[in-house]
Amino acid sequence: MDAALEQEAEVVNEYVTxxxxxxxxxxxxxxxxxxxxxxxxxNDALAITATAAPWVExxxxxxxxxxxxxxxxxxxETQYLAIAHNIAQQAINWTxxxxxxxxxxxxxRDYSVDEAQPGTYESEDADERRWHELxxxxxxxxxAGNCYTWIFDDVQGDxxxxxxxxxxxxxxxxxxxxxxxxxxxxxxxxxxxxDLSSYALVRGGCWSSGDYAGVFLLxxxxxxxxxxxVGFRCTFK
Length: 237
Hints:
The protein is built from 4 helices and 14 strands. The protein is α+β, with helices and mostly antiparallel strands.
């Protein structure tokens, strides 16, 4: 392929459809499309493919900016919860094969690698299975483990998606998980009253998180943070 054709070649980004979801607290999340993989970068351009390594070392504002340049949005807190809630309802996502028994698969988390991996990587440890299947039959990768994901907080957040108040007792951020923090593969999440104001939310965990990782893991970082264990995921309506 000559240089001109290479320039014309476009990355074909991969998305899955998330159906309209009603969270346990009654919040209705409209249907949307989400990147099948954590957002990567190929030839200095945004790429959502199995072969693109996650785009890490990017802060919260820059992640939003890169998504918007591509006509996309950073995943919101309610969108992320819709996916996690859907994942938790599918037997295939539990280690026992039965909803509620065993644990939800927690992804790449036991330091089998030392950096975020592209979607083509498969751990030798079957317990580090990195995909989860939605009710539609489509699969999403790395909603637990591999690298954290920046979250635009549309529950506790201000207009910029930064946390602006404490978690209420009925916040879907902390009431959607079907089991307590640190149990059944949920990952860690805070309690009511915890105030992360001025921080940006991150979810999922990374390659070294251990049992801290999970589809319901919820933590925070400075919006200016740009290290190698935090990436971002894109959506569109």
